[in-house]
Specification:
187 residues, mainly alpha, 9 helices, 72% helix, elongated
């Protein structure tokens, strides 16, 4: 049983997050969010100056959840086990029921202006993930951690974009196989 968020602001963000991810950001209006969150428009605007401000909050909340989980996975002393856990996490997400791709890639597709607050939040998330996997590649002793980190980001992007279009199990297996080849290091 999932507990309902306690405050109107929490309900608003939870409702918007669900709708934005499931139906697309531009496909969901403020009226619908307000109605489903069971709040008033005044409450909406008390917490967020605009729908775009709510979208930014949705992405930042999603980032915080992902950052917590990825940090847990990569905090292991054994760098190879950390990599395997991270790659499994990426692949497993692609097989979740209702999976519709990466929250951040989806948002970027709807917000083409790189100066918008939404795209800034997307960019911050991507830079954080790039840094995280580059540091992991360095821990693994990869001769070019920056290139390996960039390749792992591209693998993740491809997996998260491709899973809703193709067989998620084969996408997961492909990511695992490609990551294993990327990190086959001379012993």
């Amino acid at each position: 049983m999932t507990l309902e968020p306690e405050t109107p602001k929490q309900r608003l963000l939870a409702t918007a997050s669900r709708l934005f991810y499931n139906e697309g950001i531009h496909g969901v209006g403020v009226d619908r969010i307000v109605k489903e969150a069971r709040i008033t428009r005044a409450t909406f605007y008390r917490h967020y100056a605009s729908k775009d401000a709510l979208v930014e909050a949705y992405l930042r909340a999603t980032h915080a959840e992902l950052e917590t989980r990825v940090r847990q996975l990569t905090a292991q002393d054994d760098a190879r086990a950390a990599l395997d856990a991270l790659v499994d996490f990426i692949g497993d997400n692609a097989e979740l029921p209702g999976f519709r791709g990466c929250h951040f890639i989806n948002a970027a597709a709807e917000y083409p202006d790189p100066a918008s607050a939404v795209r800034v939040a997307v960019g911050e998330h991507r830079r954080w993930f790039q840094q995280t996997v580059t540091e992991l590649a360095a821990r693994l002793g990869h001769p070019d951690p920056a290139q390996a980190g960039q390749t792992l980001v591209l693998l993740r992007d491809g997996a998260l974009a491709g899973a809703p279009l193709d067989d998620p199990e084969s996408i997961r297996d492909g990511v695992k196989s490609a990551a294993a080849r990327l990190f086959e290091l001379p012993g």
